[in-house]
Structure formats: C-alpha cells, structure tokens
Specification:
By secondary structure, the protein is an alpha+beta fold. It has a domain of 72 residues: Ribosomal protein L21 (SH3 type barrels, Roll). It contains 2 helices and 5 strands, in the order H-E-E-E-E-E-H. It has a 5-stranded antiparallel sheet, with no helix packed on it. It starts with 26 loop residues before the first helix and ends in a 38-residue tail after the last helix.
C-alpha cells in the first residue's frame, strides 16, 4: 500500500495516455475557442505539465466562467463528505475539451419540436415524455413442424 500523498500520487493509470497517442498535442488543441457559459470536460494531457488540474477533477464536467490568454476558469461540483461544493479552478486549454453531454439533449429538443408540430397539424394530443425501456411482453412460441422436447438435467451416477 503506498504511503506517499503527493499531488500526483496514485495516478499512474489515471494520467497515462492511450497506446499510439503519445507525444505533444496537435495545433488544433490550441486553436479552439472557448466562451463563457460553455460546458467543458476536464481531461488532463500528461504531456503538458503546466496548468495541470488536480487528479480529483480528471473527467469532470463544468461550465466556463472565465477566459484568459492561455487558460479557462471552470466551475465544478465537488462532493465533500455529504455536501456538494462549487469549485472554481483555472486550467490550461490543453487539459480542456468541449463537452458532448448536451448534444443528446439538443437533438431531443429538435425531435420533440417536429413531433409537436405534426401533432398540432393533425389535432392530436401527444405526450413527449421519455419512458424507460419496458420488459418484452409475453408471447406463445409456435411449434409448427417440430416435436416438443422435454429437457432435464443428466442424472448423476457415481463411478467407482
């Protein structure tokens, strides 16, 4: 059991890059534009040590509240004991990427608008609430030309 409690203790796998993705980040990483209010994911790039987020924030999603020349300020929720605290941290843009968590929601909003307009045109009331996947309904299996078999476990016989 490790006894060190440093800033990057126990992060061998957490900050390791995938096979084949070693080296410095591409130029497109630096050319991305970030605006206040955007949702971002914090994914640390271990090739760049400056502006590195603390290990607890790896993989967390937050909202940008400040943009500077080389970094962005992100508001995150951190669970401490039995409460959730809003944390404001600054992270360099190499360690931040735009989140795709909102894409599903935006697609659903567009689909619901189309369904709502179709229903209004027909004059039908429609419910746009999502429901969880239901279990498969019961059904009867037809054995047209097959003979039914009775399956039993094989009887145990002790061989001496």
């Amino acid at each position: 059991m490790p006894n060190s409690f440093g800033v990057r203790a126990r992060t061998r796998d957490l900050f390791a890059k995938r096979w084949g993705t070693y080296g410095m980040p591409a130029m497109s990483t630096y050319l991305k534009t970030f605006k206040r209010g955007e949702i971002v994911d914090i994914v640390a790039n271990p090739a760049i040590h400056k502006g590195f987020p603390f290990k607890h924030y790896q993989g967390k999603t937050g909202v940008i509240w400040n943009v500077t020349k080389t970094s962005v300020g992100v508001i995150l929720n951190k669970k401490v004991g039995n409460r959730i605290i809003k944390k404001r941290i600054h992270v360099r843009i190499e360690h931040v990427k735009h989140s795709k968590s909102r894409l599903g929601f935006l697609l659903r909003v567009k689909d619901n608008e189309v369904k709502r307009k179709e229903a209004q045109a027909k004059g039908v009331a429609i419910s746009l609430k999502r429901s969880p996947v239901q279990p498969v309904a019961g059904h009867t299996v037809c054995l047209k030309k097959r003979k039914a078999e009775l399956l039993r476990p094989v009887r145990f016989e002790f061989i001496a």
